[in-house]
Specification:
The protein is an alpha/beta fold and 309 residues long. Helix content is 25%, strand content 26%.
């Protein structure tokens, strides 16, 4: 879809009605035509079903000045789980480019130089859902990534970006459930690594955190001088501080080795896929009236080697 386009994404998770700090600035940016697509990576409204779904009604009114201008894409988080996701499914419609069926849980499409994938990490709460949906999603994701890596497809869409709610890495811990799986449940992290995912964007933690290129708790920088030029592993980012009733996560004074930068300012991300070799990423701070507090370029002028598992 539009292979020569340079799409611009506004990305965030965890935006609610109460304390929805990012709404005004985001609306302004969207209506100034600064973005082409919004991706809300889980935890909407807080919560869509609350007060007999009146909170969900108000949230839909709040996003109307945004969703009325650009596509408003979603993946579910743990706050959409109630009543088997019924409020989420009845308010949002996601479509996968190569699938004739509507699927609000996992989907993908091509736009400009990027293949975009959304998944539902909440399926890993198997004590509530069993494991059927988890395995169905994994099979779909593996098949989708295999297709995206066919030589003709990867040449046209060299970037792969995933959206999901629950991160693998935090500034002070690692989540083994979503990263490694468990007996009978295969590793998501290995799958993303094997098929050369470039960017993995998460919410859930109410903070902005940029990580070094990381796989299996090891850092794989492109080089010490240019860590994000031809990195040898995916770049993970948490952007979960758009604003909600639960407030923000404080910055850890002694973060783990994977953490490159963190901020507790309210805000959201801008991701611009400039071309086949360059992405520009920036985090806006609502506390500082829309100032960019972190930015970097992800550059790929060499295709990295993928490993088998």
């Amino acid at each position: 879809m539009f292979p020569n386009w340079s799409p611009r994404f506004a990305v965030y998770g965890d935006l609610g009605n109460d304390n929805g700090q990012s709404f005004a600035f985001l609306e302004e940016q969207i209506q100034m035509d600064d973005y082409d697509i919004v991706a809300h990576i889980g935890d909407l409204a807080y919560d869509l079903h609350t007060d007999n779904a009146r909170v969900g009604d108000e949230f839909m009114r709040q996003i109307q000045p945004i969703a009325g201008y650009v596509p408003y894409q979603t993946v579910p988080g743990n706050h959409e789980r109630a009543y088997n996701y019924s409020n989420y499914n009845n308010r949002f419609t996601m479509h996968s480019q190569n699938d004739p069926y509507i699927n609000n849980y996992f989907w993908s499409y091509n736009i400009g130089p990027v293949h975009v994938i959304g998944i539902n990490t909440d399926f890993y709460q198997t004590q509530e859902f069993g494991d059927h949906q988890l395995h169905a999603q994994y099979r779909w994701l593996k098949n989708d990534l295999m297709k995206a890596n066919l030589p003709a497809n990867r040449a046209q869409h060299p970037w792969i970006m995933t959206f999901g709610h629950h991160p693998f890495y935090y500034q002070n811990r690692v989540d083994e459930k979503y990263r490694k799986g468990w007996p009978g449940v295969p590793s998501l992290e290995k799958l993303l690594y094997k098929y050369g995912v470039d960017l993995a964007i998460w919410g859930h933690d109410h903070i902005y955190t940029r990580f070094w290129p990381t796989f299996d708790e090891e850092i794989y920088k492109g080089s010490e001088k240019e860590p994000y030029r031809n990195p040898k592993a995916p770049v993970h980012i948490i952007s979960g501080s758009a604003g909600c009733r639960e407030f923000v996560t404080p910055v850890c004074p002694k973060p783990n080795k994977f953490t490159a930068y963190a901020s507790s300012d309210y805000g959201f991300m801008g991701i611009h896929f400039i071309n086949h070799t360059h992405i520009h990423l920036e985090q806006f701070s609502i506390n500082r009236k829309g100032q960019v507090i972190d930015e970097f370029y992800l550059i790929k002028d060499e295709q990295r080697t993928y490993f088998s598992y």
